[in-house]
Write a structure and sequence with these properties.
single chain; 138 residues; 0% strand
């Protein structure tokens, strides 16, 4: 192998690595969409009346979001590097805990109060939104 061939191979390897890295950036969008979804379902559960409508809309939105996002993630040509998937575990846990606490504190005491549910929805979405931003920077 000549020096020129080796240099050309290195350039091709660098280009391939950049293409794979770019294709793996979908995970930032995945986290961002779930952040928005958690904010939406928090608002639905806190602001929508009557109970049957709230549960119906919540179930439909959550079901479509989860099924759609899982199907989309499975169709992606490149996966994030090995442990990168686990780098966002803190965000999923944080969102889950904040979501649970928000519902526990706000239901039924704060039902229908925008002054509680809008900031709560932002707070619930914050860990996943931060993880999406962090993933985008990686």
């Amino acid at each position: 192998m000549t020096t020129e061939q080796a240099a050309a191979d290195l350039v091709r390897a660098r280009q391939s690595a950049e293409q794979v890295r770019a294709r793996a950036q979908w995970s930032a969008r995945y986290l961002g969409v779930f952040a928005a979804g958690f904010a939406a379902i928090t608002l639905i559960l806190g602001l929508m009346h009557p109970f049957w409508l709230r549960m119906s809309v919540w179930g439909a939105v959550w079901g479509v979001l989860v099924v759609g996002m899982v199907a989309w993630a499975r169709s992606q040509p490149a996966q994030p590097e090995g442990s990168r998937r686990w780098r966002s575990a803190w965000a999923w846990a944080g969102t889950g805990v904040l979501y649970g606490v928000t519902l526990w504190v706000g239901d039924p005491a704060q039902l229908g109060r925008m002054t509680y549910w809008v900031p709560a929805a932002v707070l619930v979405a914050l860990p996943l939104a931060a993880a999406a931003w962090r993933e985008r920077q990686a």
